[in-house]
Amino acid sequence: MTARTALTRLADWLQGADGNLYGTTTAGGTTNAGVIYKITTAGKLTVLVNFDNVNTLDCYQAFAGLIAGSDGNLYGATIWGGTSGYGEIFQMTTSGAYTALYNFVAASGDGAYSTPMQHTSGKLFGLTTRGGVDGKGGIYSYDSGIGPFVSLVSTLGPVGATVSILGSGFAATTSVQFNGTPASFHVVSNTYLTATVPSGETGFVSVTTASGRLSSNKIYRVTPQIKTMAPTSGSVGSTVALTGFGLIQATSITVGGVHVNAFTVNSDQQVTFNVPTGAKTGKVVLTTPGGKATSSTVFTVTP
Is the model's pLDDT at 5 over the cut of 70? Predict the structure, then answer.
């Protein structure tokens, strides 16, 4: 990044579906009109879009932050530029492909300083500070063609936790599933229900209603838990059983930091393995897509 991309304001970061962080600036870039950038979790920064107050994109100054749409794309708005000069709503893929969706006009409002939001209907909503019938701005909605979805109030927790889910048409709900595993649920209203996390199936949540199946816009991660370990000592090759919850998607196990070559997932509540060659005395760590679980006691490797 050159000195020209120094900025006067940095919008809030957003984590995209690919795990990277995305954001906008109000200045800097090739024409000092701001940029959209990406930062990997390793700290590598890439400028994906240079806003342009001269030509090409002809829109600039994205005071508003980005949002991650339920379709995997990113959405935002600028306060200036576009075909009418009052800014525009835009879409960007995580690879940087930019598309102008709507050009603001004074009559309908302009100056979209606030970060837009996505309703579970799929539509985008936001605020403008200028324009409209009295020139003082207003609330806008934009339909980009994204279908309805369900929104999870929390996206991380153990088996048995209660998860709140927002959406519409819930009065006729027939099933709720976590990554395909059925869950018990309670319909509170037509737009709100709760579900109990079933076996440790990290993945998208789906709600089936009279109008069809709605999927969540984010993954729910089931955190694994190790309750017991038996035995707590043994030699290389001996069998060890772990019990707990959320173990069904186990991807790796280590003993004292040494990886277990093979293990057997007996159920969501039990995993067995043989002590690997080179194992060291220490705690056992089991990893799933939902996170890591560490044994409360140390496993002692005997001769």
Answer: no
